[in-house]
Amino acid sequence: MGNKFSFNRRVFLQAAGMLALMPWLSSCVKSAPLKISGHKWPGYEILFMARDLGWLEELNVTLVDAPNASSCSDALRAGQVQGAMLTLDEAILLCSEGMDLKIILLFDISIGADMVLLRPELTDVQQLRGKTLGYENTAAGELMLHEFLQYYQLEKSELKLVNLTLDKHERAWQEQQLDALITVEPVANKIVKAGANIAFGSRQVPDMIFNVLVVTQHTMDRYQNTLEQMLRVYFRALHHFRTNPMDASHRIAKRLDMKAEDILQLYYGLLLPDALANYAYLSEQDIRLTSATQKLVSLMQQMDIIGDDFRVDAKFTNQFIPRELL
Question: Domain named SsuA/THI5-like: which ranges (predicted)?
Answer without folding.
Answer: 46-248
